[in-house]
Each structure stands twice: as structure tokens, then as C-alpha cells.
Amino acid sequence: MKRVLVIGTESSGSTMLTRTLAHAMGLMDYDTWTGHTGIKKKEGEVYHLSLPTGTPSKFPNLREILPNYDKAVIIVRDNTISRISKQRRWNKDIIQAHEENLTARSMLVYTMVKADSYIFSYETFMFLGYPYLRLLYKWLGIKSDYCPKIEDGNIKYLT
Fold first, then answer.
1. Could you report the per-residue pLDDT of 102-147, keeping only the tens digit for each?
2. Which of 47, 60, 104, 117 is placed for a possible disulfide with 38 were both Cys, Cβ 3.0 to 4.6 Å?
3. Does the predicted TM-score (pTM) go above 0.85?
4. Alpha carbons 56 and 77: distance in angstroms, whole number
């Protein structure tokens, strides 16, 4: 059974990627599952972790979480867009958004060092689409041609 952790800052695309992997692994339908937590079945497990998580914002203990997963997919998004999204979606002021991103950054670096990890870029996925996603599937050993409809969420922050 494959156990995959998807981890990224708030507004990084981590929910979209979690839903995509769960669908590709045959765990859940992309269109019917929110992807906000995790899904575990005999075929595998995908768990979604935003940094921070919850309201009020909390940072999880990665020393306890990482050993439970075979692979960690770190999703990254343009830092400025991520910060603006945090301000708009979660009503965080610029200082809080910036401080949370700094903490999240150190936790993502920790994940890179401590886990069998793969960096997945939101912007690269928006540009290259399925051929880029296929590289992640190959790394995870997933046999699927599934690709969600690609809608670039960055456009609303740039126009």
C-alpha cells in the first residue's frame, strides 16, 4: 500500500494535488471529494497537510507525521501569490501571512531532508499540464492518465 503525504503552504495548490493523486490511485473521485484531510483504503493512502492548518492557524509536528508516509510530495507556488491568497482567502494581515510562510518554509525544508520527497510546482503544472504530472505519477509508481481540468488560479492575482 502506497502512503503519500501532500504538503505545502496554504494556498499552494495542495488540495488540488491531493484530490488528483487520490483519483489517480483509485481512492476517491476528484469531483466528489474535497481533499481537505486524507483518504485511506487498502489500495493506498493520500494525506493533505497545509502549513499552517486550521483556525486558528496551527503548525503540525512533522517529526510525528513524516514516519507514517512512504513518500512526501511538496507542492510549491509563487510565494507572493501564496501570500496574497492567504490575505484574501483567510483574512490574514501581511505580517501574519509572511511569518507563517517563513515557518512553513522551514518545515518544507525539514521535509525535504527527512523524507523521500518530490518537489511539485503549481506554476509548472499550470504551464506543462499532464506531461509534468506524469513525472510525479512515475516517481510514485502510479499508473494513470488522469489529469484534472487545469484552471490557473494565479490569473486573478495578476490582473
1. 999 999 999 999 999 999 999 999 999 999 999 999 999 999 999 9
2. 47
3. yes
4. 23
Cβ atoms of 52 and 114 closer than 8 Å: no
Asked if residues 62 and 114 have their Cβ atoms less than 8 Å apart, the reply is yes
Q: What is the mean pLDDT of the chain?
A: 94
Q: Which residues contact 25 (CB under 8 A, 6 or more apart)?
A: 2, 4, 43, 44, 46, 142, 144
Tell me whether residue 158 is exposed, middle or buried, using C-beta atoms within 10 angstroms of its C-beta: 0 to 12, 13 to 18, 19 or more. Answer: exposed
Where is 124: in which H helix or E strand? helix 122-128
Q: Grid coordinates in use for 132?
A: 509534468
- pLDDT given for residue 4 in this prediction: 98
CATH number at residue 75: 3.40.50.300
Collapsing DSSP to helix, strand or coil, 44 comes out as strand
- 13 by DSSP, 3-state: which? coil
User: Is the CB of residue 8 less than 8 Å from the CB of residue 51?
Assistant: yes
Q: Which three cell numbers stand for residue 26?
A: 483509485
Range of the domain at 130: 2-158
Count: domains in the chain: 1
CB 24 within 8 A of CB 144: yes
